[in-house]
Amino acid sequence: MSNDLKLDLPAHLPFIDYERDFDFSVADVFRAHKDPALLKQWLGPRGLHMEVEHYDFRTGGSYRYIHTDPGGTPYTFSGIFHTVRENELAVQTFEFGGYPDVVSIEFMTFKDLGERRCRLVGHAVYPTLEARDGMAQSGMEGGMSEGYERLDELLAAQRVS
Amino acid sequence: MSNALTVRNPEGLPYTEYEREFDAPAAAVFRAHTDPELYLQWIGPHGLTTRIDEHDYRAGGSFRFVQHGHDGVEYAFRGTVHNVREGEFILNTFEYEGWPDVVTLEYTRFEDLPGGRSRLTGRSVFPDLDSRKRYLEEGMERGMTEGYDRLDTLLAQAS
Fold first, then answer.
1. pLDDT-based confidence at A139, cuts 50/70/90?
2. Of A49, A142, B82, B155, whose CB count within 10 A is highest?
3. Does the CB of B127 have a partner CB in chain A at under 8 Å?
4. Helices A140-160, A26-34: crossing angle, 10 deg rounding
5. Across the strands, what pairs with A85?
6. Which residues numbered 48-107 in A keep a CB inside 8 Å of some CB on B?
7. Which of A135, A133, A134 is nearest to A143 (CA)?
8. Is residue B9 part of a domain?
9. Residue of A14, A15, A93 lying closest to B93 (CB–CB)
10. Which domains does chain A have, with CATH numbers?
11. Domain count, chain B
12. B69 — contact with chain A (CB < 8 Å)?
C-alpha cells in the first residue's frame, strides 16, 4: 500500500523522521490531530484504551493523556504545544511518564498534496541518542503504523456517514 | 574571573552543553530565571534593553521577551514551559522569532555547591545541526557569557 508509514532512524543522530500519506484532505487529517474526541479514536496501537486528561491543540496549549493496555497498565504522555498553525504545522514537546525528564521535541508538518490527499511529515529530536534508541525499540513503529491505519478507518467512516 | 562559562558543542550531534558556577545559592539563580523583574536585568548581551511581554515559568506556561539596542532594531524570543521544579529544574522550548519554526528545547538544572555557591548546567537540543551552526555563528556564546556576567552583578547586589 502506497500510504505506508515511512520511518527513518539515522544511525548517528538522535532523530526519528517519518512520513505518511493520506487519501484525505489536509483539513481532515489536521482536525483528527486537533480534536481530542477524534484523537482518542485513533492515536496509538489497537487494543489500548485512551483517556484524554486535557488536550489543547493550539500555540501555548498543553496535553496529557493515558493509554491503558488490556492488562490494566497505564502509560501517561504529556507535553506542550509550542506552535500550532491550522492545517500546516504543530511543534510540541513529548514526555512518557515512565521516563521522567526525557523529553523530546517534535515537528509535525501537514502538506496538501491536492486531489484531497495530504502528507504528514514528522521530525522528532531526542535529548540523547540512547533516549531515541529506547523509544525506537519500544514498539513505536508498530504503534504508529496501527494508529495511522485507524486514522484512515476513522476518516473513511466519517466520509460515508 | 573564576566563574567562567564552559560550552561544549559535541561533534555531529545537535546539542550545546554548558556549565556555569555562581557565587550564590541555586535558589537565587533559579529565581533570577523565573522572576520577570530580575530576568530582564540580565538576559542577553550587553547593550540591549529587554521588555517582557509574558513570563509564566510554570509547567504549561509561556514566555515572550523583546530586546532592542540603540538602533531600535527589535529581537523577539518566545517559548513554552514544559516543566519546572522549584530551585532545581526548568525545561522549556525556545524560538527566536526572526528564524521562525527553528525551535529548540532547553534543559536547565540548578544545584547547590558548598559555601553558598551553585552550578547551572544547560543542554540545548536543536532541531538539526544546521540550526545549531546558525545560532553559534550569530554569537550565541558571547550573548550567554555576557548575560551570566550581568547575572553575577545582579546576584551580588541582591545579597
1. confident
2. B82
3. yes
4. 110
5. A89
6. 60, 62, 79-83, 89, 91, 93, 95, 101, 103-105, 107
7. A135
8. no
9. A93
10. 6-160 (3.30.530.20)
11. 1
12. no
A80·B107 Cβ contact <8 A: no
> How far apart are alpha carbons B126 and B136 in whole angstroms?
11
CA nearest to B125 within chain A: A127
Round the CA-based radius of gyration of chain A to a whole number and report it: 15
B56 lies in some domain: yes
CA A29 vs CA A118, A140, B91, B126: distances in Å: 8, 20, 30, 27
The verdict on residue B125 lying in a domain is yes
B115 lies in some domain: yes
CA distances from A145 to A4, A27, A46 (A): 8, 21, 10
- Is A125's CB within 8 Å of B126's CB? yes
- A18-37 exposure pattern, b = at least 16 Cβ within 10 A, e = fewer: bbbbbbbbbebbbbbbbebe
The three cell numbers of residue B130 are 544546521
Q: Does B62 touch chain A (CB under 8 A)?
A: yes
Query: What confidence score (pLDDT) does residue A160 get?
Result: 74
- For residue B154, what are the domain limits? 14-158
Grid cell, residue B52, equals 517582557
CATH number at residue B114: 3.30.530.20
Count of A-B CB contacts under 8 Å? 73
pLDDT digits (tens, 9 = 90+) for B102-132: 999 999 999 999 999 999 999 999 999 999 9
Supply A145's cell numbers. 503504523
